[in-house]
Design goal:
The complex is a heterodimer. By secondary structure, chain A is mainly α. Chain A contains 16 helices and no strands. Chain A has a single domain, classed as Cytochrome C Oxidase, Chain A (Up-down Bundle), CATH 1.20.210. Helix content of chain A is about 65%, strand content about 0%. Chain A starts with about 25 loop residues before the first helix and ends in a 5-residue tail after the last helix. Chain B has a single domain, classed as Four Helix Bundle (Hemerythrin (Met), subunit A) (Up-down Bundle), CATH 1.20.120. Chain B is built from 7 helices and no strands. Classes of the chains: A mainly alpha, B mainly alpha. Chains A and B meet through helix 6 and helix 7 of A and helix 2 and helix 6 of B.
Chain lengths: ~575, ~240
């Protein structure tokens, strides 16, 4: 068969979003969602390193039962800062602001997000919040725990609560703007033929995430504002001395911070849906169930915050309702896990690096989710509250879930982002190291916690030492496992094998444009006539607009409306 | 096809990543609606605090509420409702391309918005004079109102009802200042944006083809008004009948 005539120029000479402009200014003032995604990638990696450093201090201290490495006051600061940096400056922006920013327009066939300037603004806001928080850490740190519970945070803590709160307050707006941008883009900028039910599940997941971002984040903003004023000016709506109720703070805090857990994990679930379908080369099992389960998680996620407060003195009836609803939110999560598993069944599975991360995610997220059900049970919760059981549970969801999905997605789309392949052998090796290291770190914590080891102390009874030594050993392995991708991904940006436009031979729109994509994303406006996971022979999955016969697609509106061209 | 392309790229306000002005308008409008949803959640936290403490301390909230100036609050409510009317007329003028009317109604809206802020400032000053600014919000003027004895009608003193305590009244005043203060900040931002809009209207940027900025600022302005429509009865009116009980 004679190859069709193409407009293709060699990859090295092609103009793409990376080489369209050079210089620092072209990056700092860019309105291109792909470049902004990369700006975010750099900054969240920086915060991840800082958060990781604090984790290292925690694991070092807990090697021995005595509090010999850090004083109890310093230890309070270290775990607080680990939590704050990881939650607010890594996990929450991680997938949406980097991969989501890069991919949402590409996957729906748009030229950019709806508000490119607001997108850039969101990065600067994030950075400003980050700088203020770093200032607070350097000036003396904060020791309230990442949860800022009153009245300790308002009245008694002698640390930089207001500065840290200001950093989180400000960076929250970047989250709101990102969510707003995604919602508007997904509603108004889909390419012709890209119906709601042809959208990749990654987009559904980001839509659901954005809903949580816009509905939840403003509540934490006002809560932190009220907390700061209470600390600053002694105007108390939380202070019992003024007739205020400290539990109100917990309600307001968890009204955001529980849904925030879904801000962290839903985009990860979106990535996993992509990876499982694409590396099984099989349509996802139950597309609409997976899509709607994302929305169901977003909705139910807002109704379960009280399960963080079973021992706070909230009413027993409220506790029972929150317990029931927390069980209910497990259903849409389980729908996803079952559908992924059913997708694997009889698929032609290939075990590339992203798929290894995806399989790891399913296992670890399942453990994280199931132990969540233990915690949602009122009686068990009383036993496990504030123990390492809780710590292990949420690390299984956040690290075993979100971080693995993030790394899987980063590898999967790396060829599209950079135009280079990562080294597959190293990729698989580090995925394995991370999986082993992660489990060794957090599995023992379930046992230690169940046996009664409390969290947030720098010393502990000697009978828990064996679990802590295992955990610290695992953390070192995990740390090394995370450094390997850092090295080879940076290496591959220059020396990696050049990536084709569609290295995995997939139908998604992001693979139907050159790698790296041009600034305008597509050579011509794509016309979508296929379902999200409709696999086809590689020669049919070529770049849209690269062949002369595709020129007719330019007036896609005419095709849609049935007018003759 | 060539003709169609020419038509679409012709308008200078069309941004490069949109296919046409209609899509750009839809995106802008939806963006503002989504933003207003976030605003509702933001104010929602304070409405929750208000609801909780009003049900906990009804007497204190009524006593404190009675001390607010009902005439000034009522006048401000009317001022804001009229400003919503002028804003709506400004949007209409932009849609039908009447530049002079657009400028006139924008100026009127700015004047009314500023009048609201002015009256609000007078109210704040009265609270300052009566030492009703809660906590240590203002250094050197801590919360220390004088409680009126039975039969004393001095309007500068606090008239307590039932089991109200001064600490609980302070709670009301913090919620009052937090909610009206946050509302005032939104008004100031709104007036600032109206000034920008006025400048561009002066330059003749808006007409029947392109007037989305006027529309979406209108949405914002109405939203800020609606917040006040809720604040006024909650803060000024509820429990007023208890004054004569």
């Amino acid at each position: 068969m004679q190859a069709p005539e193409t407009f293709e120029t060699p990859a090295a000479e092609r103009v793409n979003y990376l080489n369209a402009q050079y210089g620092l200014k072209s990056w700092l003032l860019t309105k291109d969602h792909k470049r902004i995604g990369l700006l975010y990638l750099g900054s969240i990696s920086f915060f991840f390193l800082i958060g990781g450093l604090y984790a290292m201090f925690i694991r070092l201290e807990l090697l021995t039962p005595q509090g010999d490495f850090l004083s109890s006051a310093t230890y309070n600061k270290v775990f607080t800062q680990h939590g704050i940096i990881m939650v607010f400056f890594f996990l929450i922006p991680s997938i949406p602001a980097t991969l989501g920013n890069f991919l949402v327009p590409l996957m729906i066939g748009a030229k950019d997000l709806a508000f490119p300037r607001i997108n850039l603004l969101s990065w600067y806001i994030y950075l400003l919040g980050g700088v203020i928080t770093i200032y607070a850490l350097l000036a003396g740190g904060i020791d309230t725990g990442w949860t800022f519970y009153v009245p300790y945070s308002t009245t008694f803590s002698n640390s930089y609560v207001i500065a840290t709160g200001a950093g989180i307050f400000i960076s929250g707006f970047s989250s709101i703007l990102t969510g707003l941008n995604f919602i508007v883009t997904i509603h108004t900028m889909r390419a012709p033929g890209m119906t709601w039910f042809r959208m990749p599940l990654f987009i559904w997941a980001h839509y659901a995430t954005s809903l949580i971002m816009i509905l939840g984040t403003p509540v934490i903003a006002i809560t932190i504002l009220l907390l700061a004023f209470e600390r600053l000016a002694h105007v108390g709506i939380f202070d019992p001395a003024n007739g205020g109720d400290p539990v109100l703070f917990q309600h307001l805090f968890w009204f955001y911070s529980h849904p925030a857990v879904y801000i962290m994990v839903l985009p990860g679930m979106g990535i996993i849906s992509e990876l499982i379908a694409n590396f099984s080369r099989k349509n996802i099992f139950g597309y609409s169930f997976v899509a709607f389960s994302s929305l169901a998680i977003a909705v139910f996620g807002f109704l379960v915050w009280g399960h963080h407060m079973f021992v706070s003195g909230q009413s027993v009836y409220a506790g029972m309702v929150f317990s029931f609803l927390s069980f209910a939110v497990a259903i849409p999560s389980a729908v996803k896990v079952f559908n992924w598993t059913a997708t694997l069944y009889k698929g032609s599975i290939s075990y590339d690096t992203p798929m290894l991360y995806a399989l790891g995610f399913i296992g670890l997220f399942t453990i994280g989710g199931m132990t969540g059900l233990f915690l949602a049970t009122l009686g068990v919760n009383v036993h496990t509250t504030d123990t390492y059981f809780v710590v292990a549970h949420f690390h299984y969801v956040m690290v075993g879930g979100t971080l693995l999905a993030y790394l899987g997605g980063l590898h999967y789309w790396w060829p599209k982002i950079t135009g280079r392949m990562y080294p597959e052998g190293w990729g698989r090796f580090s995925a394995l190291v991370i999986f082993v290291g992660f489990n060794l770190t957090f599995l023992p914590q379930f046992i230690a916690g169940y046996l009664g080891m409390p969290r947030r102390y720098h010393a502990y009874p000697p009978e828990f030492q064996v679990f802590n030594v295992l955990s610290s050993a695992g953390a070192s392995i995990l740390g090394v496992g995370l450094l390997i991708p850092l090295v080879y991904l940076i290496w591959s940006m220059r020396y990696g094998k050049r990536a084709e436009a569609n290295p995995w031979h997939l139908p998604g729109l992001e693979w139907r444009t050159p790698s790296p994509p041009p600034t305008e994303n597509f050579l011509v406006t794509p016309l979508v006539t296929w379902e999200a996971y409709e696999f086809a022979p590689p020669e049919e999955l070529r770049v849209i607009g690269m062949f002369k016969e595709d020129e007719s697609l330019e007036d896609a509106d005419a095709v849609i409306n049935g007018k003759p061209l | 096809m060539a003709a169609a392309v020419e038509h679409e790229v012709s308008h200078p306000a069309l941004q490069h990543h949109f296919d046409n002005l209609e899509q750009q308008r839809e995106a802008g409008t939806l963006g503002m609606w989504v933003f207003l949803v976030t605003e509702i959640m933001f104010f929602g936290g304070m409405f929750l605090a208000y609801t909780l403490y009003r049900s906990k301390f009804p007497d204190a909230f009524a006593s404190a509420s009675n001390h607010l100036s009902l005439p000034l609050g009522a006048v401000n409510t009317v001022v804001l409702i009229v400003s919503s009317l002028t804003m709506a007329l400004a949007v209409y003028s932009a849609q039908v391309g009447k530049r002079r009317n657009l400028i006139l109604f924008l100026v009127l809206t700015i004047v009314l918005g500023s009048a609201f802020l002015g009256i609000k400032a007078v109210e704040y000053k009265d609270k300052y004079v009566d030492h009703l600014v809660p906590g240590k919000l203002l250094p050197g003027n801590a919360f220390s109102p004088v409680v009126a004895a039975h039969g004393d009608t001095d309007p500068h003193k606090l008239h307590m009802i039932g089991s109200a305590t001064v600490k609980q009244v302070e709670m009301f005043y913090w919620i009052y200042f937090a909610m009206t203060g946050m509302h005032a900040i939104h008004m100031i931002i709104g007036v600032g944006l109206l000034l920008v809009l006025l400048y561009f209207s002066w330059r003749g940027r808006y007409g029947p083809e392109y007037h989305n900025p006027v529309e979406i600022l209108g949405l914002y302005w109405h939203f800020v008004d609606i917040i006040w429509i809720f604040l006024f009865p909650l803060l000024y009116l509820l429990g007023r009948h208890l004054m004569h009980a």
